[in-house]
């Protein structure tokens, strides 16, 4: 810093004459640019959905300038007196625009409602933080960078906005003003931008379920049967991935979503133990739950998980045990005393009575051998890439919970099995329509220790052999 760039005010303090490197201005511009980009992406996605379904546009307002139920007070009450800088005023205006767009996109709103703000010591979700900013017109001190990063991550979500790449939207909506060459990006980043096919399957299922299930009205069995395949896909994904989640919030949320889907299936006659249809992608995943991995390795096929457990954790490998064998009948006994009792029980002149008891070893195999594996059998899913898919599934929690509570508020007689094997039982609901409250849906399924897992049919049970 040169001396000519410094000036002194009346109090003797140094002032900068405005010639800076521009790093801080660039950072502020990036934050504003990304915040505006998310608003443009949501608007473009909304317009694309309206164009794809013209018959359903009568009930959806096209204008997004005035949301039907904005979370913020009238803008007039939050104008310049509350803003310290123009940048802050522009940021709050962008936040309000984002919230207005989310009111017309159930999937995106659910994703924002499930996302956490990393680096910000607050239990609130990203959606709750944005609503607080829009309401108070104030940005929490020290949280601007964490919030901007969370918004940028949602803006670059392939699951939410991947369809825009094939749209006719202007290039300014699809790309930043600063374009980076793909050759300059790390290989890991480029790989992350290519989602696994299971992401598209679950995203499609979540979107169809959100649009098909009526909010605030009783769910008809005919609607459930029409989206049966999508319900089963989300159920298999949620129930198989839940045990691998380190976060208690995600683990409990996925478990409850699978339970709600199970109850809806029971009431509509859907059996969850059926194999997936042919030529369809099975959404069941197989996480490694050994302490060394703790769910960090997730495999697409069960044989891939078994191979990983054998190679890495030495699970299910052949083991040797010392035994005592009677040379007369070639029978093996676990201890010498048991072998001697066998010899004494035999007649003295018999073959076993005269035979020697010798110590030897045998090899036990606790699992059947694996067939030859291909690269597809060993395929893994990056746990980081599943974050977007998990957020989409968690976005169904409120919708499914309301449907289950509404369905169980009606009188029910007797009990019904969750599936054909009787794994889990549905507890009968209130016998009177005047019941004060619907039963908690999470109590409908028995503890897993008392009933076999619904996905047990997918994984072969090891058969010990000698």
From TrEMBL:
GO terms for molecular function: zinc ion binding. Residues 324-351 form the C2H2-type domain. InterPro entries: Znf_C2H2_type (IPR013087). Residues 1-32, 421-466 are annotated as: Disordered. Residues 430-443 have a biased composition (Low complexity). Keywords: Metal-binding, Zinc, Zinc-finger. This is C2H2-type domain-containing protein. It comes from Mycena indigotica.
